[in-house]
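User: Hello, can you help with two protein structures?

Assistant: Certainly.
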Amino acid sequence: MKTWFYVLIYLLYPATALFSQETDRFGRIIPQVVRKSEQVKEEIFSSKTELTPDVPEQALWKRVLYRELDLQVKENASLYYPVRPLNGKQNLFAVLFENILEGNTPIYQYVDGYELYDEEHCLQVKDLLDELGIYYEIDETKPGTTGFIVEKDAYPAGRVTHYYIKERWFVHPVRAVLIKEIEAICPLITGMNDNGTYRSPLFWVKYEAISSVLKKHKIMTSDLNNSWHYTMDEFLVWDYIMLRL
């Protein structure tokens, strides 16, 4: 009799283990495969992934992609609004522009066909402000810096509706996982001339120089649920945005 009892326990154990799996809020079992895929996605795209500078050069496969970010598309509107600062919130360009004015972020000339992030192609903030026709004052409270003071209402944040995004995709030589890195972004400013509306690239800025700033700024990403917030960095890195090649 005891033998049959132990046999019965042995046969029922797998079923017991099955029904003890994690369930969602509707009581449905969460498949192991789903959880693993989410872990892999997090491991691939997370900023915590440790990469050495020479990893992309040793990659099994790599490719550079240029994509365009249109802020006039509904899915990307969170990076465009508010056009003017509101309750401490600013849009993507205002955050970039403010950091550039403080002299914390170098910017580089837009050259059609290639990008060079060196001193020769470094764009002076004064030249940028003069080109845009923006009134400014030198920040004399910070000796030894190149800070500029510009009224926030003078930021051309409403005129920047598109960005170029340069990405590097490569397969890690050791872990054999696909990794995406944003190398640089370039805001495009809109304007009017005799030929009608135009868009003009302003400058390139390396993403590693601004990612820490973007991580501090949260944006609302849902009209239906105001508790859904992501940082600007998460929104860009995790491809919540809609891009086109």
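That covers the first. Now for the second protein you mentioned:
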Amino acid sequence: MLETIKVFFLAIVQGIGEFLPISSSGHLLVLGNLLFGGSDIEDELGTLGILLHTGTLLSILIIFRRQIWEMLSDNRRLMLLIIVASIPTGIFGIIIHKYFNFLEQNVLIAGIGFLLTAWLLFNVIAPKKKSDYERYFDEIEELSNEENELSTSPPLKTLKTMTYRDAFIVGCFQTIAILPGCSRSGFTISAGILRRLNQDAAASFSFLIALPAIAGATLLEVLVLWKDQGPALLSDPNMHIFLLGSLVSFGVGLVSLIFLLKWLKEGRLQYFGYWLLILGPAVVAWQLWEIISSHPFINEFLMNFLQK
């Protein structure tokens, strides 16, 4: 019963964190270490992690079914943009997974990633509040533009007008989000906004490029686990619980994605940054304490101090 509760709890965290800009991988890593213990984290979250990601992948297919159908039927350019964005993620994802896999399981990096995500939420995604002084001159500029019928700044881009360079840069930001704590949605939406995509285009492209990224990462993990466990992977005694967890992550992910798109339009995503500003320093402090306290000299000093 306790294991079932753990799985359902992690499924809810996955469904929320995959889309809301708080990093599902970072939260799963931190919670996995707390619930299962650091030594068993990779084994415990291996099969379960795959199924939880599959659940959230299906929720993207449901929400963006219209764009996906258009892309597959006649919008070849959008498909090429997604391919371009996926190139850096695919290359560096394989390199990191093969040679630097320890980075994906490092809780200290997750704490630092939470802080980086918070910075993006406050400084890129958050709507800029202008002073009365700035608003005054903006009004003068708008009046001047109306009189001259000229625009001083180019319009924001849509999925139809974004360039291949825009797609590649967004893909590079997605590559950084391979690291735990770095929210994929937070980084890619921020990249889109920095490249002057409008909010709808930035969010839509962020989740469209998530399809090959999540599917590729899931397939890679399946291959690794199949190499280690073989057919025994399918006969896991907890498989029925894991499948229910996948269903929970799908449902929670569906709701989370709907709310993310709504909150992005309302300019409220930055509020998640406050949670990350609490969680990030706490995780960093926890991991630094683990490193310091595990040192033989520090350990001996603490034992002697407590005995006194």
